[in-house]
């Protein structure tokens, strides 16, 4: 861990982790790490290279060798696999549907967790890292830890809006609620672990949510 500021944020799908974490990183002038993007990019690579995600050996080899580049600026997203810009492709429903199989492999997780820890250790300006297991596994010793939640109905509505109304209710439930259920088998993000501050954004707009997370961080820092 660096001696600079590290903020860990976890939460379920559609709770606002990515958008809120970027704003929090800008506020504190920190770098930003989207760990979900890593699992999504590896899934994209497997589908692209026709790696069978149910074949554990092939999956682990892919995790060890996939040519991955990720930026850490909250202002400019860089996510590349083998030089291909996959920022949009990794958000497609076909990736959301396959990513939990990849993320449930414990050896794959360890490879990506090690990579995430390296990103955090190398962040000269400190970092906001967000995902499902940052507060509990990747950086339990972070300076401030927040679990960002919102009720299921609100999260489904937010994801629906974000995808421009292209997905019906059943598709959204599949991509959000059912994925959370699968992910809950390997990571714990529905209840705040000891020392982690819960921020429920169900009744907060975007700006209010950012303010609530900044306040939680300041409290954790004793400010
Ligand atoms: N408090 C909020 N109120 C309304 N919309 C929000 C709020 N927080 C996030 N959003 C929007 O909800 C969508 C999902 O947020 P995102 O940050 O992608 O969530 P996650 O990373 O947890 O899946 C985005 O379009 C984001 O702008
Ligand atoms: N630290 C993390 C981050 C994401 N994951 C997995 C579980 C999620 O289904 C996928 C995608 O995560 P992502 O944060 O992009 O998903 P949402 O935008 O919240 O829907 O990756 C994980 O297992 N551990």
TrEMBL record:
It comes from the Bacteria. It is found in: Cytoplasm. Keywords: ATP-binding, Cytoplasm, Kinase, Nucleotide-binding, Transferase. It catalyses: dCMP + ATP = dCDP + ADP; CMP + ATP = CDP + ADP. CDD domains: CMPK. Its main location: cytoplasm. Residues 7-218 form the Cytidylate kinase domain. ATP binds at residues 11-19. The keyword Translocase does not apply. Pfam families: Cytidylate_kin. Belongs to the cytidylate kinase family. Type 1 subfamily. This is Cytidylate kinase. It comes from Rothia endophytica. The lineage of its organism: Bacteria, Bacillati, Actinomycetota, Actinomycetes, Micrococcales. The gene is cmk.
